[in-house]
Description:
- The radius of gyration is 18 Å and the shape is globular.
- The chain has helices spanning 8-25, 40-49, 98-108, 149-161, 170-181, 190-205, and strands at residues 3-5, 31-36, 55-65, 68-75, 86-94, 114-122, 132-136, 142-144.
- Strands 4-3-2-5-6-7 form a six-stranded mixed beta sheet. It has a two-stranded parallel sheet with strand order 1-8.
- The protein has six helices and eight strands.
- Strand 5, helix 3 and strand 6 form a beta-alpha-beta unit.
- It is an alpha/beta fold.
- The site of adenine (ADE) has 5 residues, from strand 8.
Amino acid sequence: xxxxxxxxxxxxxxxxxxxxxxxxxxxxxxxxxxxxxxxxxxxxxxxxxxxxxxxxxxxxxxxxxxxxxxxxxxxxxxxxxxxxxxxxxxxxxxxxxxxxxxxxxxxxxxxxxxxxxxxxxxxxxxxxxxxxxxxxxxxxxxxxxxxxxxxxxxxxxxxxxxxxxxxxxxxxxxxxxxxxxxxxxxxxxxxxxxxxxxxxxxxxxxx
Length: 207
Ligand code: ADE
């Protein structure tokens, strides 16, 4: 698998570019809905740039069956006060597009005046093309956003090494991750990698 790492600095720059696209299009949303969790940080940054303080979130995820991701989207049952509002839905990446498509349909049930969608990246396989995006991956790759770094470290390494990871030093954990992904991540702190071990591995390894 190919990995692309986005640093915090790059993520902020990409989000500023997204805001610029929005501005150029003259769409002026007065509410932002972040798809949780991927869209939370881009949505917060956008809300600052475009001066919108009505920021809501809706949790959505693809439903996995027997280890395989299906196309079925599970969306949080939540009431959002966006009737007659101009809404911008924000996520980090559109993959198949099933999630964004389902969230747009849900958001429309609240009778907003208008709905548009904005993401940082789309993939070559995306069947749903959002109104605004900044990056298009030309080939299939997994994007490691800085807000998913511990999740990616532990899910990848757990697949490869299982509970042996619990006995590794923090330096070795980071080295193993860099060998697996070929990305050198300067934002990783050994302290947080070690802290996250408790939250990711212990529930899996010690029940
Ligand atoms: N699909 C869902 N999340 C993704 C990510 N972070 N990178 C690439 N494809 C994805």
